[in-house]
Amino acid sequence: MTDYAARRTMMVDTQVRPADVTKFPIIDAMLSVPREAFVPRDMREAAYMGENVNLGGGRVVLEPRTLAKMLDALDIRGDELVLDVGSALGYSSAVMARMAEAVVALEEDEAMSQEAQTLLLEHGADNVIAHTAPMAEGAPEHGPYDVIVVEGAVQHLPDALTAQLKEGGRIACLFMEGALGAVRIGYKLGDQMTWRFAFNAGAPVLRGFEKHAAFTL
Q: Dihedral sign, CA of 179, 162, 96, 45?
């Protein structure tokens, strides 16, 4: 029988801590949330590998290092509301639920969203709301948000998402530029977004976040 608790410890010790992520709330959450429960059953043996878990259809569960470093840069506090865009089966939402006051898990695949709600409740993440809607539209009815995390790559970030950030709020996005991806943290100041580079990573571009084709005659 697979010892998933031991695999979680190994994941943190070999993938998270070596990536200079040492904040206790992140380490504690990633040691506590059973990652294997939030991937398809036939993918459980791959849940703790140092790579994205492929969910099909261009969707992934981000590798532990990428998620941990995003959370490290965002520094989520216990009184904050988080929008988790592309939450899939809810792993990232379950992790952030242990840090934030509440999380809105946004997923446009209705079956995945329903399964996520069940899994989140089963694993004690009762401060997460599973919301089904197009990812590029966000979930304005629950906002505005202190923090937004996009669980996949973007080439274009819809204005609808930044509009749902509170003043002084922040967003983590993985911008893909060809084969190279860069995670940037955006800060909302007035009507402007200020971005800073955090680290490099890679993931498929989410539907609705593709680069707009230039119009030519």
A: negative
Query: Tell me: the pLDDT tens digits for 95-104?
Result: 999 999 999 9
- Residues facing residue 209 across a β-bridge: none
Tell me how far apart the 2 most distant CA atoms of the chain are, in Å.
Answer: 62
Residue with tokens 């981000």: 62
Pair 170, 189: CB distance under 8 Å: no
Residues of the chain predicted below pLDDT 70: 1, 212-217
Q: What is the pLDDT of residue 213?
A: 54
Residue with tokens 């089963």: 122
CB 59 within 8 A of CB 204: yes
Place of tokens 């304005």: 140
How far, in Å, CA of 181 to CA of 153, rounded? 8
Rounded to 5 degrees, φ, ψ at 33 are -80, 125
- For residues 147 and 74, is the Cβ–Cβ distance under 8 A? yes
